[in-house]
Write a structure and sequence with these properties.
Elements: E1 12-14, E2 21-29, E3 32-33, E4 37-38, E5 48-50, E6 60-61, E7 66-67, E8 70-78
Antiparallel strand pairs: 1-5, 2-8, 3-7, 4-6
């Protein structure tokens, strides 16, 4: 797995065509109750992404019960002219834990 969205191993990056990179960004919708708080490195939009991790990381949190809220995660990738052609896969596990 690529542990960062770019070769500099930054926490966030804006993906650009022609330069390899991979990551996710997310948005939330409001529900009833406590609002979701999105982790800053995943709060990008467009081609701005946060790095993935091989260890558990918090994507979104809340301080109390919420009902009807949702999280939309977008997976983005950019390739370079020298990226080998092929089928690329990754396994990403999401969990939802109560306080």
């Amino acid at each position: 797995m690529i542990p960062s969205p770019n070769a500099a191993f930054a926490a966030t990056a804006t993906l650009v065509a022609g330069t390899e990179g991979f990551g996710i960004n997310a948005t939330t919708t409001a529900g009833t109750g406590a609002p979701f708080t999105l982790a800053a490195n995943y709060a990008g939009s467009g081609a701005t992404v946060g790095k993935l991790s091989t260890t558990p990381a918090t994507l979104v949190s809340t301080t109390a019960t919420t009902t009807g809220a949702s999280v939309l995660v977008t997976h983005l990738v950019a390739i370079s002219a020298t990226t080998p052609a092929g089928s690329y896969t990754d396994t990403i596990t999401y969990g939802c834990l109560a306080n």
